[in-house]
Amino acid sequence: MNINLIRVGLVSLVFLLFLANATGLLNLELTSPPDLSVSSQWLSAWIAGDNSIRLPQFVWSPEMLLFILTGLILSFSLPLLAPIAASTLTLLLVIPPVYLNYTGYLESAALPMEYFLLTILILYVVNVLIAYFEETHLRQQIIDTFSHYAPPEVVRELCRHPEKIPLEGQSRNMSVIFCDLVRFSAIAEKVEPADLTRMLNEYFTRITEILHSHGATIDKFIGDSVMAFWGAPLPQPEHAPRAVAASFDLHEAMVELQQSFENQGWPWAEIRIGINSGLMSVGNMGTRHRITYTVIGDAVNIASRIEQLTRIYQARTIVSEYTYRAADMFLYRLLDRVYIRGRTEPIRIYEPLCRKSKADNSKIEQARINDEAVQAYLSGEHNKASELFSKLQTQMPDDKYIMYMLSMLRGEDLGETSLHHKISTGSALPDP
With 70 as the cut, is the pLDDT of residue 182 above it? Predict the structure, then answer.
């Protein structure tokens, strides 16, 4: 049912109560001590045996007809008008009874000016209350709906200040994250469709909870991947640190999920994460039939590409040099300098290790030696790089990234068929 018809009906019902009271059809009296009594002159006359009940003569008086006309106009107009127009109409309809009272016409009338004004005021207040409850209900619906995409506190702030929503599209400095399940195709082959759906729902639910706890807005689910961003719809100056901090919690959450999956007989699952920060376009995008609130741009493409690089470099999370510079409260290790498909200039990629405040001297030293080894590798000093990576391997024998770099240095062709060339030309990236 149309909400406007409901509002018209409620306001009209209130007016009919006032009209029934004015004509004697319904008498409402509040006595002392507080007691509401309801009676009817017409009903009393009928019970007394007066079968020739007629409308009182004053019902056809000019003031009563004005009262009825005023009530009908307000009942059918207030619910359909904007607040300013409704207030203006109410003020205009106050003028006739005030004028008639000023000229002395209503002094001896059966319907005093005070009753006129009380009816007009009550109808206006009822309409305002209905609009308030309707807006409150709508706002709660918005919170319930968009809380699936953004944290509830962000949605509430947007409801209080809707002008902050960049619906038309804006360029903002933001961070974006891509989170993907490793070897999902192999997992899907081993799990029944119903169990796979339950598995993905449990996975997406936990990932979403973590991202929301760090203030992220969920952009979309792409198969088994999650895309989210920071910096919109509300500005978040600390978007890069939030994104990196979220990556640590996401990996911790997967440890808990793996135990749950194991208990249900599902395969072991692990995630890989790519993060980038930079200038992106954000807003509602799509067609008149379907739109979505999303981010696009070169910075988004970089995040997607470096998420794919996690398979090659055997890193749980990779961030770009732009995120690295914007979130310097974390300890990183340099992984490589790579060419991203679609870009002419290479970028450095890093793996976040922990917060600097939690890093011990051993970890800091290992990160320093790693960065020195990578710098030697990038400078063409492969013997030096190999020595440094070998030294690290004695300290971290199970580190897959170090194993990969040593294999590259010992046996892979570092010429035009190198990894850099494969990435820049868009060759398929292997799935470990």
Answer: yes
Residue type, 334: L
Strand partners, 286: 291
Answer yes or no: pTM beyond 0.85. Answer: no
- For residue 344, pLDDT over 70 is answered with yes
pLDDT digits (tens, 9 = 90+) for 362-390: 999 999 999 999 999 999 999 999 999 99
Cβ contact 101:113 at 8 Å: yes
Report in angstroms the alpha-carbon separations of 96 from 109, 135, 288, 413.
14, 32, 48, 95
The predicted pLDDT at position 250 comes to 97
Give me the mean pLDDT over the 98-116 stretch.
75
Tokens of 92: 């205009």
How many other C-beta atoms can be found within 10 angstroms of the C-beta atom of residue 64?
20
Residue from 417, 403, 349, 340 nearest 378 by CA: 349
